[in-house]
Amino acid sequence: MKPFHLKSRWQVFIAILLVIFWVKGHQHISQMDKRFFQPSLQGIQGLFLYEIGNYKGAAGAYRAHFMETDDWETSSDPGVDALLRDDLFLAAAISESDLKTGQNPINAALTLGEVALTDGRDDEALAWFNAALENEEDQFDALLLASILQTRNGNIGEAIHLINRALRHHRADTRITTFFWVLDAMGDLLESPDHSQHSTLLAHYFRYLRIFDITNGKKALSFATAGLEGNDHLESAYLTMGIIFHKMNKIEDARSAYKKALERDPEFSEAYRRMAKIYSERGQLAKEYQMTKIAYETAPKDRFYIQAYQDHLVNKLGDYYQALVLTEKLLVEDPQNINLIKSAASYLRFIGKEEQAIQYYEKALIFYPNDPSLYEGLGYSLIELEKYDAAFEAFQAALSINNTRANAYAGLSYVYNKTNKKLDAIETLEAAFRHGYRSNIQRINLCTLYHTESLFEKAARCLRRVLTAEPRNAYAGNLLTYTLKNLADQ
User: Fold this and answer.
1) What is d(CA 426, CA 410) in angstroms, rounded to the nearest whole number?
2) pTM, to two decimals
3) Domain edges within the chain
4) Distance from C-alpha of 393 to C-alpha of 376, rounded to nearest angstrom
5) In whole angstroms, what is the distance from residue 306 CA to residue 70 CA?
6) What is the pLDDT of residues 173-228, one digit of tens each?
7) How distant is the alpha carbon of residue 205 from its chain centre?
8) CA-CA distance, 391 to 252, in Å (whole number)?
9) In sequence order, what are the residues at sequence separation of 6 or more whose Cβ sits closer than 8 angstroms to the Cβ of residue 352?
């Protein structure tokens, strides 16, 4: 037997290291969003620069990918496509035309805001982002872009507030361009001589990146800790620490961080709400109710916390009537509040008073004709009254304002299904899922439509997806058996 030389040992050691790095890298990459992986040299460069922490360089590389390659999917918004091609004149022209015709006013406002932001017209950019928020409160892209603008102007507290408003929702941006702006802003902050003074803001931007790459959670925690050391917006630093600890299942650490946030700011509504989530997970209903109620009381005009309190009344206590009473009381003080009108209409729908709900939606549309969610609510109420033609028009109106509304596509699909237009029902329900629809019940309905229309290969794929999420779903299992039999007989 030949002796095991030192050289061989080093080769084995290096091979083992490479395997370890490959496994860890594969695990990391498999958890990352597809936006990081663009099929070009610029796309690969963007991923590499992102991984080494050169965020501004990564943004530039990703932008170059979209500018220089033809191998990419359009965003379904011509204004955004023009932005990706760096054709600001065309982007502005398309958006101005959309505004004149009433098409996609939210997307148009966001695009015009991005054009102004690129040109350094900050006041104009902020006006456009606010216009988008007037049409859709807490619109994620508008809040994030406004946060970036405030960061650029040194208004760090306001920048943190805006990104916190965005991140309190379970959603993300709808425009890849927003992602590039965040990378740019992070790069500028990290490269600035006084970047240590903005650690808490960076922690929030890493919270945003965590949506697409879970490894950013630890970076958010690290920068939040640095924020505490630098006495930098302490209540927000503690909040971020609590959120990350909570996601890491370190519940006591999270609760402690939220308590410290509240010690710094007893009116910090988001900290109360996050504390309520911990009590909810522990089944401590009384404490959850207390925290949810205080969150509302410390921000009585913030729709988000009003909604959280109403949801608790409805979903945890099953009290639609008390929620309706609360909402109508608030409407006396603020009769044109779009969100309160939406809530009142929604609760009336739940207790079966569809015609009264419709009256609320129609009243709201007088004041807010460009809010797509109002048309969606109206459409679903009309469905309950079997007024399918009117419901169809309502959902179409919602999509004319924002053609990425998953609920509107789902509503259209229901109308098509009820009026025996099965292929149209399939097409619109597919669109709903492409735009983020998450209902497994509707997924089963889509599978059934595929089967009914003899699209057996699609039906089989669809049913397997359902069964992956719900292995014991008897209906999906039985239908898959028949689908596979029909496939074999073809």
Assistant:
1) 10
2) 0.68
3) 439-490
4) 10
5) 46
6) 889 999 999 999 999 999 888 777 889 999 999 999 999 999 999 999 999 999 99
7) 15
8) 48
9) none
